[in-house]
Amino acid sequence: MGCFIIAEAGVNHNGDLKLAKKLVDIAVEAKCDAVKFQTFKAELGLTKSARKAAYQVENTGQDGTQYEMVKKLELNETDHIELISYCKGKKILFLSTPFDKESVDLLHRLDVAMFKVASGEITNKPLLKYIAKKEKPIILSTGMSTLGEVEEALEWIYQENNRQVTLLHCTSSYPTQMIDVNLKAMETLKNAFQVDVGYSDHTLGIEIPTAAVALGAKIIEKHITLNKEMEGPDHKASLEPHELKQMVAAIRNVEAALGNGIKKVADGEKDTLIVARKSIVAKRRIKQGEVVTEEMLCVKRPGNGISPKNIGQVVGLKAKANIEEDTLITLKDFW
């Protein structure tokens, strides 16, 4: 099975259900496996005075609190039902990240296939254990965390007899600078906890998620938008439709190129093999009855004669008839 690609619509619908459906369309057209939103009640997850993150201020301005910004981005239960139905009609998996217990219950009631947990919740023991009790697969992002904190989060989940966890390496800055990606940490997570791993990307462009697949990512998550210039906190670090298509195509190309690991002659190089390899050739005219020495032979293209590695099998043989100069040698030429 190939890498599972999640188009992270997040809150880039700006609270507009019509826009949310357009984001689903983008994911479908790019051939993503799932499209993911966020499920939350602002009053359950933020104090009224919670400040915006620096990137949110940069993208939405100084005015207002994080609560006021987030409140406008909520999707209600009716919205969720309509989006899930829309995704089913488009044959793409609907996913969402819950940020509070009520949202977990809503998604569970609506029969989501799995839970995606945001990086900011990795120390939220009550929420992690609550999600784990639902007995569904969990995709856990690990931005802003240490290896010890990831271990602790896994222990809380495992305590609820749920071991269906995939860890996503992530850097929670928007956009993430290349120096901060630390992609090898994904392999560290895999080796440390013996679980499947993936990568949730916030860099600009598509190079890093593509590289993550080459390093063994089972899941790739990437933010999407209709237009990076739209108002909202996450648009600038998201992919526009044409970029999403490019990323999916690049990932599928990398998967095809990784192959099965068996070193063999590829079908596409069989013709080149004959042209590029060399054979044993008569360096001069070899007369009938002559016993062949290595000095009478040379090695030239093409490679459809006797391989140079078998030159020892030719030396010492007697020519049945004259062999002209620059002629490929065959064993039928000798007694």
TrEMBL record:
Domain AFP-like: 279-335
PROSITE patterns assigned to the protein according to its UniProt record, in alphabetical order: AFP_LIKE
Family matches, as SUPFAM superfamilies: AFP III-like domain, Aldolase
Single GO term (MF): N-acylneuraminate-9-phosphate synthase activity
Entry keyword set: Transferase
Domain of life: Bacteria
InterPro entries in the record: AFP_Neu5c_C_sf, Aldolase_TIM, NeuB/NeuA, PseI-like, PseI/NeuA/B-like_N, SAF, SAF_AFP_Neu5Ac, SAF_PseI/NeuA/NeuB
NCBIfam families associated with the record: NeuB_NnaB
Name assigned to this protein: N,N'-diacetyllegionaminic acid synthase
Organism per entry: Clostridium formicaceticum
Gene (name only): legI_1
